[in-house]
Prior knowledge:
The structure holds two protein chains of two kinds. By secondary structure, chain A is mainly α. Chain A contains nine helices and no strands. The longest helix of chain B has 25 residues, at 76-100. The mean pLDDT of chain B is 88. Chain B is built from two helices and three strands, in the order ββαβα. In chain B, strands 2-1-3 form a three-stranded antiparallel β-sheet. In chain B, a hairpin with a 7-residue loop joins β1 (2-8) and β2. Chain B has two domains: 2-53, Ubiquitin-like (UB roll); 67-100. The A-B interface holds A 32-35, 37-38, 41, 135-136, 139, 142-143 and B 21-25, 27-28, 31-32, 35-36, 39.
Amino acid sequence: MDEKVQNTLLEIADDELILGWRDSEWTGIAPLLEEDVAFSSIAQNEIGHARALYELVARERGTTADALAFDRSPDEYRCAPIVELRLLDWAQTIARHYLYEEADAIRLERLKQSDDSEIAGLAAKIDREEAYHRIHAQMWFDRLQGEPRFAAALDELRPQTAALLDPELRGEHTSELPELWEEMTMVRRSQPAGTKW
Amino acid sequence: MIYEVFRQERKGQPLQHAGSVEAADDHFADVYAREQYGRRGESTALWIVPRSAVIEIHEFVDELNRNYHRVDGYPLKEKLKEARDRAVSAKSAGALSAGKG
């Protein structure tokens, strides 16, 4: 697996991990109890996808998925800025969810064409789970379209989705990433490196 | 809107009421019911019904006290006891009259 492919997988894995983290912040405070459960489930899936992708890269590099997920410094992550944003408004969160799933569908389709059968196989598995995410996002889109706050959120976030599909547009991180990384890695860093969890 | 959810444990089993979900429309109800009652592969089928479609029945008319409709309304033990008591008293009455003749 060449360097370029590894980096592509890391981009997607980092997107899924960070977005999963942000989505999970809604657990307990989503607008509806049922939505709380559904959205938490989606967040969990995303982190699961990240893990599976990290494991592929980790094998190539002689490291572990955990190390890739948590032991890099914030500027070493390859995620797109849009997933780092802490969106406090449900309209914005669901708008990002919709736009992200749109872009993710395209790049998963590309990955399914990979010559590497393991990558293609994993992409197919992830894609099947993402089908549920897309149904969920479309459902919200159908319900909220025309609503001013949702429309405004889509307009505001859409330009930032380009980086999801074009690695050239990645590299810069938002000022929110360091604080997110602090929280996300706090438990892991509370114990010495090499601790078995 | 409230939707009542019924789930089937195994193929062939009757569906049983499992709970309810609150949802904006049928589509949301479908997604939420799957999440709440089907995520762990615990059901072979789900039925989702708007609460408004449910017809509730709580009162049953039994003006003439027709307890013979009910399984517990015709107590066989009691009837048998009454019949035995009648038979015993008839027998002893017969014995008395037989003894006289």
